[in-house]
Design brief:
Elements: E1 13-23, H1 25-31, H2 42-49, H3 53-66, H4 76-86, E2 90-93, E3 100-105, H5 115-129, E4 143-150
Antiparallel strand pairs: 1-3, 1-4, 2-3
Amino acid sequence: MKVRKGFVSNSSSSSFCVYGVNFTKSYFEKHSGLYPEYDGDIYQVEDKYKIDPEISLAIKEMMEQDQITDINEFSPYDVYENIAEIFNMSVKYDSDDRRIYIGREYPTLGGNETGNQFRNSVQLSINKIFPFEQQNDPALKCHHIEESWSN
């Protein structure tokens, strides 16, 4: 039997490891506060739905840059990735694009940051992304996620 040591890659496979959560597109649209009854004014949305100001500003900048007046005109993937970037997290998608994974990769752990600080910062960021469900929904409790799949 041949044993390989080191990294082995196959172009049709993908794997990752993050500390965070996973959800569906419909869950994000329902619980992020960015989509319900959207009226074109991100500031009104921020006030009405208590969206984190950093997220609100990032979405507003995306809309101005692309000259878009309705968030529904964006690819949801652009929205996920811009929000993740605000909190120094990454976004991954399963092979069927049914589940979205958002979290911090372990190499982003700072030199003076403890494991608890790392985990708490990720949970705080997730709570800001999903302001309505943070205390009630076990799906938003951050955990270690390790996934891989091949096509």
